[in-house]
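Review box. Two proteins, two foldings.
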Amino acid sequence: MPPFEPTSEDLIPSPEPQFGGVIRFLVTDPPFQSALIRGNVAEGLTTDGLLLSWSRPRDGSPCWVLELNPRWVWPDGPSVRAGDLLAAWTTGLLDDSSDLHWLLDPLGDNAVTPVEVNDVNGSMRAEGRILEVCPRRPTPDLPARFEHPATWLQRVDPVTGLLEGPGPYRQMPDGSLSAKTDYPGDGPYVDSVVPLVVEGHSSLLLRLGDAHLAVTFGPAADALIDDPVPELRLERLPAWDRTYYMWMNPDERWVNDPVFRRWVAGTIDRDEMVAYLFDDRGKRAFSLSYDGSTVPVYPLRADRPLSPMTEPRLRMVYDAADPYSETVAQRVRAVLETQQVELSLVPMARDALRRALRAGDVEIALLAHRPGSEDPVLALEGTVWWLGEGAADARALLVEASGIESRQVAARAEGAWKAEELLLADARVIPLIRLHAWLAYRASLAGLDPGADGEFRLEETWWLP
């Protein structure tokens, strides 16, 4: 293969960052395309972004005061106001599959039920660039909640239907991102970011130079590791690892029995699954939160707890948009069929799946734990929230743990583990495998900034000469 020869559209002629070039971002997980666009069109409420300052609660008041940065403006010119944030959040809450429901739940009357729009309006006051937020329970992790991409400021242009925000890029009709020349930050340094949506193996486009950047898993990562390309760099990206697990609804027949659930957990050879499906680019998992947890917290049952004549018929739903969920689900079905258990597989759109889970209308679900926060409590809450009444006890423990001061990292991690252990102990949650993520990119790219899963900031990324 000839060496990589960047074209004029790819390179910046000077070593100092300046506008120019294009990044072709390879997307194998379509929802990530949305996250990529939102994360760069929107602007995060972080201390280096839209937010200028926090004022912590004092004198016994539960309220926080946020001051927005006056430099940030909408594409049509007006400065961003606190009322824009309030309007965006209340609009977002109209979508019952939005992460805003658990992120803003401290503003609601009931800690374990979805927050209502009226609760948010009654707990926030916007005036100019000042937003006063008054949670209805102690919420020391409020800043961490507002760092989640779901809270970032964006809106839909009523004429074009495209997303717009105070971030570094504009969304274009073809799905690409076009740089703003009047962005108040230092970047962006490239003219555009073009998502390339593909299905299946992604290593070929990276090898050919048709794609410049990708997050890869399993066989695609393995191909690049075993047969490296000098022009490509490959780095582990642990924050983007996915832990696939089964949710067994305790309110449904068959799976309402902990003995049956533990037996199902013990029938699956996790090491074989990682090796056979993902070329050993992952590891077996017996927990959601801890990468090193490779043994179960409860004894797995090896013997079949049913009479030989009993053949359960079960139904498992999975995320139709996740390119790896179907593969894992099919492997689970094949294993259970050897144990005289019939398992039908039903793909569902992600939003519909979340609604079904919250309503308790799911018998078994194959899901992926993909933390959207570095905070241990919020990382787990973003998963447990959607499991509905069947996980209400664990959810209550997470609400309690969220009241621990954010600086007490060990105490928050312990509180999160208590909630998770409750779900693991009776096998309502059955972790299967942790799939390792790898960042692949052209050696000429500099300034890459991946955050939590689904967050990739590109305004300070540029091409080296």
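Next protein.
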Amino acid sequence: MIVFAIAAGTLCTISFIPQLLSQFKGRDKLSRLFLVIYLIGVINWGLFGITMPQPNIPLVAISAIQVVFVTIILIKLGIHERS
């Protein structure tokens, strides 16, 4: 469905705004907001790949790998925040 592609492209693009603002403020760490918005965008890319008339397996696989990577980063950031 084209709505997933539009949402994915929009979210992946605007996800960099919190990271950019963080860099302008002199912070060298990853923004959780950036990662969450990016993660939702990547999930939408995967949904787009699945809902195509002929599912795009490479797009779905790449999206799944990115979801795992971003989730690991978010978990690691959460662990460091608590310690």
